[in-house]
Amino acid sequence: MSPPGSGDHRDRSVTDRRTVAGVVLLTILGLAIRLYDLGGRVFHWDEGRVGYWTLRYAETGHFEYEPIIHGPFLRIVNGALFGVLPPTDASARLVVALVGGILPLGALLFRAHLDRLEVVTLAAFLSLNPLLVYYSRFMRNDVLVGAFAFLALGFVVRALDTRQVRHLYAGSALLALSLSTKANTILYVLCFLGAGALLVDHRLARVVRRDGLRSTAVDWAQACWRGLVAVAGDRHPVGVLLSHVVGIGVVFLAIIVFFYAPRPDLYRAIGSPEAWSGVLHEATVGSVRELVDLWIKGDMQDNPYLTYLGHELETIAHAAAVTAVLAVVGFIVDGHVRGRDRVPAGRNRAFVAFAAYWGIASLIGYPAATDINAPWSAVHIVLPATIPAAVGLAYVLRECRAAIAIDDSTAGSPTIHVPEPGSAAIVLLIALTATGGLLAPTATYWNSTNSDHTAVVQWAQPHNDASETIADIEAIASHHGDGTDVLFVGADVDSRDDTFYVADESDADEMYAPGGWNDRLPLPWYLERSDARVDSISADADREEALADAPPVVIVHADARGEVEPHLDGYRVREHQLRLWNFRIAFFLEEDALRAARSGE
């Protein structure tokens, strides 16, 4: 005979395995969605500039932190990746897609605070939310900073749950990785601290009213000390804890220095110990100074708050309506509503409240903190909302199961029920696909560059019809002989002086490229990876003289096409939008050069 309770333990183990299986299934699904046709969308302007300077770093080995393009993570990691894989649109986005794809596994870190079905529903939101999917397929830092901070929080929570200090090392490393991607990590930490302070205040006020301030303070101090002793696991807990604090700090600092230290100074310091002080200073104090000069002393946050807030709400309404509605449901349910299936009334879990406060703080704070009105900032609001939304969806599923159950044993009627967490992933997929199709149309166009989809697609996204022309330009540059491959013709259009013109093309080798170089984005990424030789002429240049011996590719703003076309006999011309709207470009491709490139001559 089995000992008492052995069957319960076995059932619980099976259920836990099903929970893990459900999370893993959703993670695999999320990875597949993110990796499918990853290079199918033309690079965005932001992707183009970071990609260009990543190629420059990979070629020269020179790197210095520039806060205007955020943290160094992508340039350092992709610079190394391009030594293994060719620099394609897909490979450049690969790291972001992988991090966004494995994020649903992080739901398991909160299993002590969420029930089994809630863990699976959390994984479902992290895997399938249209906004998280779209920007996981985008070479930008927002999903990276959010995912790393989310996982760092998970490991800290896991350390508190298990009293195992190794989780704090993992949390420290992930927080440092988050900071290496973008300074938004500071906002995450502030939101964590603020949400935690609200929880402590609520619980402290409740206990103080019951037990008195002095008794409460003594009890909390003793409880904290017992927890620290349990973590230390030694007769000298203070010394052990201090050693762990130092170790955790060293892990954090080592990652920060690795990413923020200038190159090649970092590599020189490995063989020259006397150089370490300068490298450490530049990686820490110097980086902070650069960040403060740009984002604090500058005017990067000088924006109309209500306009930006309205845009955040519009993005959430289009790309995360299901998440937002269920987050409200989950927050209310967890505090006040008795559910079915043996779920107690008003669990009022600290972790669910913490996530709700974190999400509210992000919604209030990001419109003030962000420098550009862009949908990617809503990623940082959706991430915390997935936790109460998971609670809300689990509650709805349980209520649906109870509502459709047919249990009439006397009549011999069958019982219909929603399956347990392992199979619930299938139910969740059907439910989220259905609601996503109605309320979040972005779920169907993860590669979209459609100007009608501006709730998620940022305005500096070129249209995908330019991809064939870009491929032809790269082929021409690769096969063309000596001389300039691509000539940009400046023009005074679109409220800009000398669009495309750069007086000295070599100036674009470093960050903060001058003149009209930014108007060319994302083309510099494609031209650099094909080793194209690029030049430009100003709007004041004599067109006839400048184009007398034109290179095989000439690019001009569409409004100035008529000034160029008469001088380019034997060229095929195509026009494409290099933004969602109002920035149409004319590409002139020499017919003979194009035929030669296509035939491989």
Tell me briefly what this model is.
The protein has 601 residues and is mainly α. It has 23 helices and 5 strands.
Describe the structure.
The protein is mainly alpha-helical and 601 residues long. Among the domains are: 22-304, no CATH class; 464-599, D-Maltodextrin-Binding Protein, domain 2 (3-Layer(aba) Sandwich). It is built from 23 helices and five strands. It has helices at 6-35, 45-60, 73-81, 89-102, 116-128, 130-136, 142-162, 166-181, 185-211, 213-232, 237-260, 265-271, 276-296, 305-319, 321-336, 350-369, 379-404, 421-439, 467-479, 523-529, 543-546, 561-564, 591-599; strands at 486-489, 534-537, 553-557, 571-577, 584-590. A five-stranded mixed sheet has the order 2-1-3-5-4. Helix 1 runs parallel beside helix 5 (116-128), helix 9 (185-211) crosses helix 10 (213-232) and helix 16 packs antiparallel against helix 17 (379-404). It is globular.
Count of DSSP E strands?
A: 5
Number of helices: 23
What percent of the residues sit in helical stretches (DSSP H or I)? 55-70%
Q: Structural class of the secondary structure composition? A: mainly alpha
Report the sheet with the most strands, covering strand number, pairing sense and barrel closure: 5 strands, mixed
Strand order of the largest sheet: 2-1-3-5-4
Topology:
Layout: H1 6-35, H2 45-60, H3 73-81, H4 89-102, H5 116-128, H6 130-136, H7 142-162, H8 166-181, H9 185-211, H10 213-232, H11 237-260, H12 265-271, H13 276-296, H14 305-319, H15 321-336, H16 350-369, H17 379-404, H18 421-439, H19 467-479, E1 486-489, H20 523-529, E2 534-537, H21 543-546, E3 553-557, H22 561-564, E4 571-577, E5 584-590, H23 591-599
Parallel strand pairs: 1-2, 1-3
Antiparallel strand pairs: 3-5, 4-5
Helix pairs in contact: 1-4, 1-5, 1-18, 2-3, 2-20, 4-6, 5-17, 5-18, 7-8, 7-9, 7-17, 8-11, 9-10, 9-16, 10-11, 11-13, 14-16, 15-17, 16-17, 19-20, 19-23
